[in-house]
Amino acid sequence: MIIARSPLRISFAGGGSDLSPFVDTYGGSVLNATIDRYAYCTIVTDTHYNTNAPHIVDHCVDFLYDTRPNAKITLYSETDHGSGLGSSSALVVSCLNALTYESKLNTQDLAETALHVERNICGFPGGKQDQFATAFGGFNYIEFQTNGTTIVSPISLNYEVQRKLQYSLILYNIGVSRTNNTVLERNIDGLSNNQEIINQTKQLVKNCSEALQYLVTGNIYKLAQSFEDNWQIKADLHSGITSNPFTEVKEKGLQNGALGAKICGAGGGGHLLFVVDPNKRYQLIDALKTLPGHVEYFGFTSTGSETWTQ
Question: What pTM value is reported for the model?
């Protein structure tokens, strides 16, 4: 049996600036980190080819091989589709990594291939950050250049800053998937012809460079403010991004110790990431228990997609 796993990610800043056509004209940047939730792919020999996820696996197999192998290929994610944690891209990366176990794509090629398969072959809408985040793993500042080049700059946080950050973040699953709305598609359409949306997206790039400085120095309060700035920019982009239930959850958080909040993913559903006053961490957790969603506990990971046999 071949097994591959790829970590999910949380995003701190820049999401949206990695969307075409904006990124193709102006470039973009994102700041994210992988967490200890994973998307898996397993491959076992079988009498014929079969899979539980043909909408992903068939495209990966057909891209890599002339004929489909006699194998059972299974995908599984530790979060729901539309979570805002990059699960779809993590599944594609895991599938490609498992299928190329013997030939071993390097990390950059793995991410680039996953991006091509997901966007151009599968036709899934979205940005460019998730494939690189899950392939490389860890804390990363990722820059997308207008010529198509992607530069991944790993961020090395010392132990004290990383622990401080971990204790000051709370990840909340609002209980609604983004698959129920078209926020992402409408945002992409706006980037084609709406100058106001283009200008707001340029602000996301500026916000990302500022958040990077706050992250590496462990300035939790400034990071919280960058979350709030990001929230306002996203709200100005499209009302559906920050609409209920996000607004309700955020207000409950701000009333109970949260210093700032940021949507993970394209908005409209998924997860909300809070920066919280460390003295009020458990007050906020208790308050969030009164809402329909739930807190998800996580740790950071330093490794990206990996494979092994078993």
Answer: 0.94
